[in-house]
Write a structure and sequence with these properties.
The longest helix has 19 residues. This protein has 12 helices and 6 strands. The chain starts with a helix and ends with a helix. It is about 50% helix and about 10% strand. By secondary structure, it is of the alpha+beta class.
């Protein structure tokens, strides 16, 4: 298993290579989609989007576990294209598809750099109920917190590189004010200290990258989407994902 230290050293390569732009047609060739409502399945708790659990692969899944269509998103919290997808598509995905019980949405972290890994540790720290809200807030505030990372002095960044993975991500969270950001959203610093130094969780996030590229050799970067086990080609926007969800539902 690759160490988090190796991931930190490779940050520049990962950051430049793994954030997909919208530069091609979707896999089904559809260019538009119907606005017809999706037939709903009644949720036992009244709202399928409130049902969130952690998956065996390390992701978090929202919605009906027996949904007709199982969507997986591979996302990076430092990827601007992922933030754009969240801004333009996540509400529609949840309200029009997940809440109906016909589609489940699993988010799997694909960490591109040590800052992404730091933010991912914080998002995962509060458990399933808070995971999606924290991910969405990190995307909404992405330009702000990533700019603070860019302001870290070179000498401090060099000192971070010399640290072991048991200290790197805690230090990044402090210097970038991400730990303070998380505390303002209900994640106490005492708890985030534990999560940011959790070697098992750090190793899992790194392992998830390898698992992704092994399971889906055609994976090119984030965001990428899988519908019922099939990786979609050149689908990085809601405009390209929505018609494929509707096709999978037969609507």
């Amino acid at each position: 298993m690759k160490s988090a230290y190796v991931l930190l050293a490779a940050a520049a390569i990962l950051a430049s290579a793994a954030c997909n732009a919208d530069n091609g047609a979707n896999a089904s060739g559809s260019s538009s989609s119907s606005n017809a409502p999706i037939k709903a399945i009644k949720a036992p708790n009244g709202d399928w989007s409130k049902l969130v659990s952690r998956t065996a692969e390390g992701g978090y899944v929202m919605g009906n576990p027996n949904a007709d269509v199982k969507l997986i998103e591979f996302g990076s919290l430092t990827c601007p294209h992922c933030a754009e997808f969240d801004e333009k598509g996540a509400d529609k995905l949840v309200n029009d598809f997940v809440k109906t019980g016909r589609v489940s949405w699993e988010f799997r972290n694909f960490v591109r750099d040590p800052f992404d890994l730091t933010a991912s540790l914080l998002a995962r720290c509060a458990g399933p109920d808070r995971f999606f809200p924290l991910v969405r807030e990190l995307y909404a505030d992405q330009k702000n917190w990533t700019s603070k990372i860019q302001d870290i002095p070179p000498e401090k960044f060099q000192a971070i590189q010399a640290m072991g993975p048991d200290k790197q991500f805690l230090e990044i969270a402090k210097l970038s004010q991400l730990q303070q950001w998380a505390a303002q959203r209900g994640l106490p610093s005492g708890k985030s200290n534990v999560c940011l130094t959790d070697q098992n969780e750090i190793n899992l996030l790194v392992q998830m990258n390898g698992d992704t590229t092994t399971q889906f050799p055609e994976f090119t970067g984030t965001p990428s989407f899988v519908i019922n086990g099939t990786m979609l080609k050149e689908t990085a926007t809601w405009e390209k994902l929505e018609p494929q969800l509707r096709d999978a539902l037969g609507s």
